[in-house]
Amino acid sequence: MLKQLWYLEYYGYSLDHYIVTDLAACKLISFPEGVYKVLRSVTDNIHVINLADNELKAVTSKFIATFSQLRVLNLEGNSLTQLPEIIGSMMHLTSINLARNKFTVFPENLTTIKTLQNINLEGNDISELPLEKLTAMTTLQCLNMKSNPLNKEAKCFSQPNMTFELLTTADKE
């Protein structure tokens, strides 16, 4: 990790403009404390974090509070079952990828994020959706629920005033 940051500084990239943090496939079981320390002065400038394909079982409130300016959060391919309540306070988040985790219940705290445009929960084990709360999300454009054992109500859900595309093909049998 530090070698990567040193490499960026060495080649003249300022961390003041560094807005993407890619820690995909690093076998992380939690977000490293050292990364908080290294990035503490630039957390407001980090708009994208990729933590895909790690071994995370939880996202902490500290992580959400520290990176409150995120626009895109990729947590695909971990072992998450829930999100902290504080995630609802992420006022700038537009896209969250939670595909291939271990969710059995739709994380309803996502429905309180007013800027959220894309939610990817493909490949989890979710059977029900909070349809009323989802239709109230005025900025939501796409909800990917492919490869989930959705109940009939969720699979067939459609409303004339629905502002988002609900992807449900290739569902688990």
TrEMBL record:
Q: Kindly state which keywords UniProt assigns to this record, in alphabetical order.
A: Leucine-rich repeat, Repeat
InterPro entries reported for this sequence? Leu-rich_rpt (IPR001611), LRR_dom_sf (IPR032675), LRR_domain-containing (IPR050216)
User: So which domain of life are we looking at?
Assistant: Eukaryota
Q: Which Gene3D superfamilies match?
A: Ribonuclease Inhibitor
Is Coiled coil there in the keyword field?
A: no
User: Membrane spanning segments where?
Assistant: none
Any single Gene Ontology cellular-component annotation: cytoplasm
Q: Does the keyword Cell membrane apply?
A: no
**What name appears for this protein in its UniProt entry?**
LRC20 protein
User: From which lineage does this chain's organism come?
Assistant: Eukaryota, Metazoa, Chordata, Craniata, Vertebrata
